[in-house]
Automatic annotation (TrEMBL):
The gene is moaC. One of its GO terms (molecular function) is cyclic pyranopterin monophosphate synthase activity. PANTHER family: MOLYBDOPTERIN COFACTOR SYNTHESIS PROTEIN A. Homohexamer; trimer of dimers. Residues 17-152 form the Molybdopterin cofactor biosynthesis C (MoaC) domain. It comes from the Bacteria. This is Cyclic pyranopterin monophosphate synthase. It comes from Pacificispira spongiicola. NCBIfam families: moaC, PRK09364.1. It catalyses: (8S)-3',8-cyclo-7,8-dihydroguanosine 5'-triphosphate = cyclic pyranopterin phosphate + diphosphate.
Length: 163
Protein backbone atom coordinates (compact mmCIF):
# COMPACT_ATOMS: atom_id res chain seq x y z
CA UNK A 1 0.00 0.00 0.00
CA UNK A 2 1.49 3.35 -1.03
CA UNK A 3 1.73 6.23 1.39
CA UNK A 4 -0.08 9.42 0.44
CA UNK A 5 1.82 12.05 -1.51
CA UNK A 6 4.78 11.73 -3.82
CA UNK A 7 7.29 9.62 -1.95
CA UNK A 8 9.72 6.82 -2.71
CA UNK A 9 8.55 4.91 0.38
CA UNK A 10 5.30 3.12 1.08
CA UNK A 11 3.51 3.13 4.44
CA UNK A 12 5.69 0.20 5.58
CA UNK A 13 8.93 2.01 4.71
CA UNK A 14 9.61 -0.03 1.56
CA UNK A 15 11.15 1.64 -1.48
CA UNK A 16 8.65 2.20 -4.31
CA UNK A 17 8.49 4.12 -7.56
CA UNK A 18 6.38 7.25 -7.07
CA UNK A 19 2.85 6.81 -8.42
CA UNK A 20 2.32 9.64 -10.92
CA UNK A 21 -0.87 8.23 -12.46
CA UNK A 22 -3.05 11.03 -11.05
CA UNK A 23 -0.77 13.79 -12.32
CA UNK A 24 -1.74 15.80 -15.38
CA UNK A 25 0.24 15.32 -18.57
CA UNK A 26 1.97 18.55 -19.50
CA UNK A 27 4.79 19.66 -21.76
CA UNK A 28 7.96 19.43 -19.70
CA UNK A 29 11.51 20.51 -20.37
CA UNK A 30 14.77 20.59 -18.45
CA UNK A 31 18.21 21.96 -19.25
CA UNK A 32 21.39 21.09 -17.38
CA UNK A 33 25.00 22.19 -17.78
CA UNK A 34 28.44 21.09 -16.66
CA UNK A 35 32.14 21.47 -17.38
CA UNK A 36 35.12 19.21 -17.90
CA UNK A 37 38.12 21.27 -16.83
CA UNK A 38 41.32 20.21 -18.58
CA UNK A 39 44.99 21.19 -18.70
CA UNK A 40 45.92 23.84 -21.31
CA UNK A 41 47.76 21.27 -23.45
CA UNK A 42 44.72 18.98 -23.35
CA UNK A 43 42.48 21.86 -24.38
CA UNK A 44 44.79 22.56 -27.34
CA UNK A 45 44.80 18.87 -28.35
CA UNK A 46 40.99 18.74 -28.32
CA UNK A 47 40.72 22.05 -30.20
CA UNK A 48 43.27 20.98 -32.80
CA UNK A 49 41.79 17.51 -33.38
CA UNK A 50 44.81 15.72 -31.93
CA UNK A 51 43.06 13.18 -29.68
CA UNK A 52 44.08 9.69 -30.80
CA UNK A 53 40.70 8.12 -29.97
CA UNK A 54 38.90 10.61 -32.24
CA UNK A 55 36.72 13.65 -31.70
CA UNK A 56 35.67 13.61 -28.03
CA UNK A 57 32.97 16.24 -28.56
CA UNK A 58 31.12 14.21 -31.21
CA UNK A 59 31.38 10.96 -29.28
CA UNK A 60 30.32 12.64 -26.01
CA UNK A 61 27.32 14.25 -27.73
CA UNK A 62 26.03 10.85 -28.80
CA UNK A 63 26.84 9.34 -25.39
CA UNK A 64 24.90 12.12 -23.64
CA UNK A 65 21.82 11.48 -25.77
CA UNK A 66 22.06 7.75 -25.08
CA UNK A 67 22.60 8.43 -21.37
CA UNK A 68 19.42 10.49 -21.11
CA UNK A 69 17.46 7.62 -22.65
CA UNK A 70 18.96 5.17 -20.12
CA UNK A 71 18.34 7.25 -16.98
CA UNK A 72 15.92 4.76 -15.36
CA UNK A 73 18.60 2.07 -15.73
CA UNK A 74 21.11 4.24 -13.88
CA UNK A 75 19.10 6.10 -11.22
CA UNK A 76 17.03 3.93 -8.87
CA UNK A 77 13.26 4.50 -8.98
CA UNK A 78 13.33 6.91 -11.95
CA UNK A 79 10.38 6.45 -14.26
CA UNK A 80 11.05 5.07 -17.74
CA UNK A 81 9.97 7.93 -19.99
CA UNK A 82 9.18 8.31 -23.64
CA UNK A 83 11.37 11.32 -24.37
CA UNK A 84 10.33 13.46 -27.32
CA UNK A 85 13.63 15.35 -27.65
CA UNK A 86 17.17 15.14 -26.31
CA UNK A 87 19.72 17.72 -27.42
CA UNK A 88 23.30 17.74 -26.16
CA UNK A 89 25.74 20.49 -27.10
CA UNK A 90 29.46 20.52 -26.32
CA UNK A 91 31.74 23.47 -26.90
CA UNK A 92 35.21 24.58 -25.97
CA UNK A 93 35.41 27.33 -23.37
CA UNK A 94 38.88 28.82 -23.67
CA UNK A 95 38.40 31.15 -20.70
CA UNK A 96 37.63 28.21 -18.41
CA UNK A 97 40.04 25.86 -20.21
CA UNK A 98 37.14 23.42 -20.34
CA UNK A 99 34.67 21.51 -22.40
CA UNK A 100 31.24 23.03 -21.71
CA UNK A 101 28.25 20.70 -21.91
CA UNK A 102 24.56 21.57 -22.11
CA UNK A 103 21.65 19.15 -22.43
CA UNK A 104 17.97 19.88 -22.96
CA UNK A 105 15.38 17.13 -22.65
CA UNK A 106 11.66 17.40 -23.48
CA UNK A 107 8.49 15.34 -23.30
CA UNK A 108 4.77 15.56 -22.70
CA UNK A 109 4.06 13.47 -19.65
CA UNK A 110 3.27 13.14 -15.98
CA UNK A 111 6.74 13.61 -14.55
CA UNK A 112 9.68 15.90 -15.21
CA UNK A 113 12.92 15.31 -17.08
CA UNK A 114 15.43 16.96 -14.77
CA UNK A 115 17.17 13.67 -14.05
CA UNK A 116 17.45 12.90 -17.77
CA UNK A 117 19.08 16.28 -18.49
CA UNK A 118 21.50 15.87 -15.58
CA UNK A 119 22.30 12.31 -16.66
CA UNK A 120 22.95 13.43 -20.23
CA UNK A 121 25.49 16.01 -19.03
CA UNK A 122 27.12 13.53 -16.64
CA UNK A 123 27.48 10.79 -19.26
CA UNK A 124 28.81 13.26 -21.84
CA UNK A 125 31.37 14.55 -19.31
CA UNK A 126 32.49 11.02 -18.42
CA UNK A 127 32.86 10.27 -22.12
CA UNK A 128 35.12 13.30 -22.62
CA UNK A 129 37.16 12.08 -19.65
CA UNK A 130 37.43 8.59 -21.14
CA UNK A 131 38.53 9.89 -24.51
CA UNK A 132 41.33 12.13 -23.23
CA UNK A 133 42.41 10.44 -19.99
CA UNK A 134 45.55 9.09 -21.66
CA UNK A 135 46.96 12.62 -21.78
CA UNK A 136 45.22 14.24 -18.79
CA UNK A 137 44.21 12.14 -15.80
CA UNK A 138 43.87 15.33 -13.73
CA UNK A 139 40.74 16.56 -15.50
CA UNK A 140 37.89 17.62 -13.26
CA UNK A 141 34.22 17.20 -14.00
CA UNK A 142 32.54 20.17 -12.30
CA UNK A 143 29.52 22.40 -12.02
CA UNK A 144 26.87 19.91 -13.17
CA UNK A 145 23.59 21.58 -12.34
CA UNK A 146 20.03 22.19 -13.46
CA UNK A 147 19.68 25.60 -15.11
CA UNK A 148 16.05 25.50 -16.19
CA UNK A 149 12.92 23.36 -15.99
CA UNK A 150 9.37 23.99 -17.07
CA UNK A 151 6.05 22.20 -16.90
CA UNK A 152 4.29 20.24 -14.23
CA UNK A 153 2.67 21.37 -11.01
CA UNK A 154 5.80 23.14 -9.73
CA UNK A 155 5.96 25.27 -12.88
CA UNK A 156 9.09 27.00 -14.05
CA UNK A 157 12.51 27.03 -12.40
CA UNK A 158 15.52 29.01 -13.55
CA UNK A 159 18.83 28.90 -11.70
CA UNK A 160 19.77 32.30 -10.30
CA UNK A 161 23.27 32.25 -11.68
CA UNK A 162 22.98 29.93 -14.67
CA UNK A 163 26.47 29.53 -16.02
Amino acid sequence: MAASGLTHFDSDGNAVMVDVSAKEQTARSATARGLVRVAPETFAAIRDGQIKKGDPLSVAQLAGIMGAKRTPDLIPLCHPLSLSSVKVFLSLDEGECAVAIEATVKLTGQTGVEMEALTAVSVAALTVYDMVKAIDKGMRITDIHLVHKSGGKSGEYRAESAS
